[in-house]
Here is the input.
Amino acid sequence: MLKLEHIYKTYHGKSVLTDVNLEVAAGATRALIGASGSGKTTLLRVTLGLIPFEKGYVKINDQALLSFRHFEWADRIGYVPQDGGLFPHMSARQNISLVPKLRGWSQARIDARMEELRTLVGLEVAELLRFPYELSGGQRQRASIMRAAMMDPPVMLLDEPMAALDPLIRRSLQQELKAIFQRLGKTVLLVTHDLGEAVFLAEQISLLHEGRVLQTGTYRELLARPADPFVTLFINAQRSLPDAAAAP
Amino acid sequence: MSWRRAVGVVLACLFPLVTIGAERIVVGAKIFTEGYILGEIAAQTIESHSRIPVDRKLGMGSTGILFESLKSGAIDVYADYTGTLAEAIIKNPNLRSLDEIAQALASLDLVISRPLGFNNTYALAVKETFAAQYNLHTIGDLLSLQSTIRAAFSYEFMDRQDGYRGMLDRYQLSFNPRMVKRMEHSLSYQAIGDDAVDLIDVYSTDAKIKKLGLRVLRDDLAYFPSYQAVWVARKAFVEKYPNEWRALLTIDGTITEAAMLEMNAQADIQKIGFEQIASRFLGAERALTDTQWSRFTHRTAEHLWLVGVSLLFSILIGVPLGIAAVRFHAAGQAILLLSAVIQTVPSLALLCFLIPLFGVGTAPALVALCLYSLLPVVLNTFTGINSIDARHLENARAFGLSKPQILFRIVLPLASPTLLAGVKTATIVSIGTATLAALVGAGGYGAPIVSGLALNDVPTILTGAIPAAAMALLAHGVFEVFEFLLVPAGLRKRRFST
Here is the structure.
């Protein structure tokens, strides 16, 4: 279970996050959605323990971030950066085994865990030997998910997992991601600006605007009972496609 | 893993070079024809009386450098002139007699021999045709031309108390300062030959006096002191190798002015090698081919040692400086600026600054080379790290990597292509710059280049310049291999990706 309680964060006297509360139940998938500038990147960095914040708590299974050393916290959150974020100088395999190696895992243990995750995300053995530039966008995402899951963290954090993919691949990977999340059984927080993606992958959506969580609920709830006029504005902005007649 | 491998490869390459330096007698010489010939005569004399190998550090620049070398033990013996010793080393030009000079040098733990037999004093010379035109016979005759005559004097002559200034005082001359140029000695002959100047300073045994048809103006007021050639040796050398020193003393009095002028002419005009001239004088023609080969390998080892060690230190210093420059912005700019400024100091000037601090020989040369190769290493480390996508660094932190882990597993490998390119530049530049090390007696391929320049002898220059160029090319190839071994494969092939 991931819990953010009353998080406040200011940059140079300007408040970026104001009383942010977020609770993702164990095994659930939550989407954190917001426009750029809404504070979602800051919230992500706070959650990862990368930046200090003025007030509040970040907790995993009721244990606060501040009670851990940084690497212990990092092992509790499997992080999947934008576009996979694989290190370009390492093969997919080396990327995936980097952290377990640093934590002193035996090669056998690393191999066993990697094999388990490989079948789960659906990558070929040969693909793991390749370097990031030799992999497709979707393959990079899968390898990155494997890397994030290696230490068996209770929480997974994904930053715009689909942003860099083209629409067709996006559709099919979305399906698979959903299945992968179910198989992994992790608590997942998904940061995205794309409502469609959020609706498809997450049971519940939290909408962040100007550093505050305006509303948390299912898509239907947001649509039917918006807590703020901006919620409706945001949903409509995302849904509106150019009129067929107006298109050139 | 590749960083440990990098250090391993570099150390493995340097290790065979550490074995230079067993017991040797080192003969020095000043950087002009006569110096080389006398150096060769000394070296061959010792070689024919001793089994201890002789190192030749010939062409070592001016008196000051040779004196420092003697003091520090970088050389054991060389030939100099009584007048020079009194002026440049004892700093008392009034000492004229050999015994007074010997006594003064003894307090500096130096020993001199009896005169070798000739007097090579400063003199002024003009072309015969010019002399005839203006009826010039003595230095005093220059008075009528003092405001119009174009003169080129060597640096040493201009700066010595017993040189230019004293001469003007004695003869009540005052040349037009704008008509007086300071020039490298061997080039001033070229200048007077081409009629670019009318008057130059010469040494009275210079072969070119004859070749260019110059008239030496008589020193009718006996201003210039006597410049008797003598051996100058470290006291420790004389005590440790009495036989070898006695062998050198057998030369005393045998080199007449005519003999010296003839030998200088053989070198300068007939382009006969110094070794051959010396061995002819000593009455023993020597087989030279295999010594030339062994000299080549010795020079190669010296050159490699200079480049390798200085490079190792510039990496050990430059990479951390580059990292620091990224980390601390203000200090970073200062570091980059400083290493750029070092780069602009002319190499000869830098060597001169370093002599008081590090003496002569290999040490100042290594320091100078290390300083010169610092800029490309620092700059490329800085650029390489700065051009890393910041997201990779943040991701590494998010995965819980510690600062050293991020540095060694992410930052340095990602910066390695740029960093290695900097080391490559540094290597190739220092292979070239290392030829200057010969000026402070550090040997290497610079030795034949320096002596060739002194003689205006292109083939001799090429025996140093070609191997240096070949070494630079080889270094280029070696770095291709290093790049293959050290740069992570994921970055190596990146250039082919879309």
